[in-house]
Amino acid sequence: MSIFKNVEDKKEAKETENGLFEKLKDGLNKTKSGIFSKINDLFSKDKELDDKFFDELEEVLIQADIGVHTTMKMIDDLKVKVKKEEIENTEEFYKVFKEELSEFLQEEKGGLILKKGLNIIIVVGVNGSGKTTTIAKIASKYKKQNKDVMIAACDTFRAAAIDQLEVWTNRLGLRLVAQKEGSDAAAVAYDAIQSARSKDVDLLIIDTAGRLHTQKNLMEELKKVKRVVYKEAEEAHKQLLLILDATNGQNAISQAKIFDKAVNIDGIALTKLDGTAKGGIVIAVKDELDIPIKLIGVGEGENDLQVFDPEQFVEALFS
Amino acid sequence: MIFSGLAEKLQDTLKKLSGKGKLNEKDVETALREVKLALLEADVNYKVVKNLISRIKKRAVGQEVMESLTPAQQVVKIVNEELTNLMGGEQSEVNISSEPPTLIMLVGLQGSGKTTTAGKLSKMFKKQGKTPLLVAGDIYRPAAIKQLQILGDRLEVPVFSMGDKQDPVDIIKAGLSKAKTAGHDIVILDTAGRLHIDEEMMEELKEIKNETDPDEILLVVDSMTGQDAVNVSENFDKSLGINGVILTKLDGDARGGAALSVKAVTGKPIKFIGTGEKLDNFEPFHPDRMSNRILGMGDVLSLIEKAEEAIDKEKAAKLEKRLKNNQFTFDDFLDQLEQLRDMGPLDQIMGMLPGMGNMKQLKNLQVDDKQLDHIEAIINSMTKEERNDPDIINGSRRKRIATGSGTSIQEVNRLLKQYRQTKKMIKKFNSGKAKGLMGNMNLPF
Known about the structure:
The structure holds 2 protein chains of 2 kinds.
Chain A: H1 2-44, H2 51-63, H3 68-84, H4 90-104, E1 119-125, H5 131-144, E2 149-154, H6 161-172, E3 175-177, H7 185-198, E4 203-208, H8 216-232, E5 237-245, H9 251-263, E6 267-271, H10 281-289, E7 293-297, E8 305-307, H11 310-318
Parallel strand pairs in A: 1-4, 1-5, 2-3, 2-4, 5-6, 6-7
Antiparallel strand pairs in A: 7-8
Helix pairs in contact in A: 1-2, 1-11, 2-3, 3-4, 5-6, 7-8, 9-10
Chain B: H1 4-18, H2 25-41, H3 46-60, H4 63-66, H5 71-87, E1 102-108, H6 114-127, E2 132-137, H7 144-155, E3 159-160, H8 168-182, E4 186-191, H9 199-212, E5 216-222, H10 229-240, E6 244-248, H11 257-266, E7 270-274, E8 282-284, H12 287-294, H13 300-310, H14 313-324, H15 330-342, H16 346-351, H17 360-363, H18 369-380, H19 384-388, H20 395-405, H21 409-430
């Protein structure tokens, strides 16, 4: 019977995956019709691969938030390739360009992996990046897979942050561990671990207060939360997920750098890709920091959180 | 510090230029290429940068500059002027309606900081003697109303809400009539965060606008926004006709280029900036001063304003009198400390001093407000007698003070020493051996 269930599960998973791909394309369509259509424009006309062409390419890439540094690197690479491989027209160049873009992204798919026993995900990020919404989406996904999910409200700072989580957990039927506003975040995390253990929870997601990465005291508080969790829940499978807002520009790199230095990031979830934001920052973050992108948010619905797939990502950008 | 990354880059570039006596076209071009990259790294929109650079170039390679005795300074001046222009020249005020209440509507993307900004804005108006009312128009985000209510409680500003089941237009209309009857002169409307391409939601905002005719529609923009800032602001402006922009989260290390882009694309001024977590970390935006800050010329005007706001004139006069009679006690010390603090976080204050904002040594120095906490705690642990006559503080008293304030005897000793030095100096001043009393006060950090 368990085998049947597995097959059923897989079937269902496949179906949603297809649906999700459409959604991703949909979300990225806006991205595409924004800047990346300009890339297609650039390539469609039969242009000479001269300085003017590369200037235009530079403009397109920077406007996609790929960042000055990575853009310059990419263009230098491309210029060398054009010379070496004697590329003469835009059609051939387009191929090389796509390859180059893939090279700058990661090879493997993203996604979160849950192990047997207690899993803990600590979610961190700057104010307004979409932490709470992303947590709700992750929780909803695993809840649907019949996992027992608990959320710890360690954002004890922002007014009504706990209420926001309460609304979500009620809506999704999840467990919530919370204390009152202003209490010690690490203490809430500690309580949550005890409670998760006694209730045999599969996944504990810890919401932390949004903080600008430059606020040293708040980063210290975050370190403390991490310390407590890693020490207290030794047996658990723990991950630290950084939420980045796709509408952010090159500051996202600085955010990733500083958060990584403070608490060691295991992966990134890129949110708000459903606007006109280009998400090019993914390429810059990957290029400069080599932290894998795990998830992307492409909409406001519970199901609009997807596994990051570099191939699909590039494919969807150009299809 | 605000715009510090951009500032540092630009100053470095321009410094290199100043080292040269005469400039040729190539010097200017190399420098401008650096300026261009610095602006792009600060997330200023590509098109905006391109236009700006071509304008600067046109002026900088003109005869006026090349023939001047100090061509590099001329170039810096041109960059400064063009930057100021780009940011919008003079400061822009909020339109206050001749028939109260004035309705201010805040719009923007999710997570840009609308609700917090609504709170900060109401605090600013309250400080100006106005009677603001906050209206909770975000019925979609869970607990958004609660968040506004908590902020209102903290600020003692009333919040009008009708829960999340009513149509926002109805809520706002009811809020407005409540404001009229209760005599509120400012109504600040918090709306739901939305994507600029979400047409349905945009329609709702348009309806709110048509039905309530706001005096000000302010777009709240996250200063960390990248190239997309242009699309966002263009779309909001096209649909709603915004009056200005509030730039948030400037206390991070964002280089804030979005600010420049938004102004350039919409032509609408940046009116306020949010510079910190606390509800009074909020100030009017002065383009000319900001441009000065970016180019390292300091922002003395803002500093003076802050000082005027914080310093209690009456107390200052009293203190002056006491100082003249050599009566300087720990109570005076404490008063001074509090006034200094009211000016805001120390690192922000220091950033306003000419040449200080970007001194390399200061870059990693996070001025520790905690040190001031310790000093305050120490003084608060003294008895009235001790504060008036610190000479009586002997060993056992020191021990008691250290324990009472949760500090160490060393710290208490250090403070006593600083106090004695200050007092000595006051004596010197009074005997006419030195001038510029306040300027040389030995403050304890």
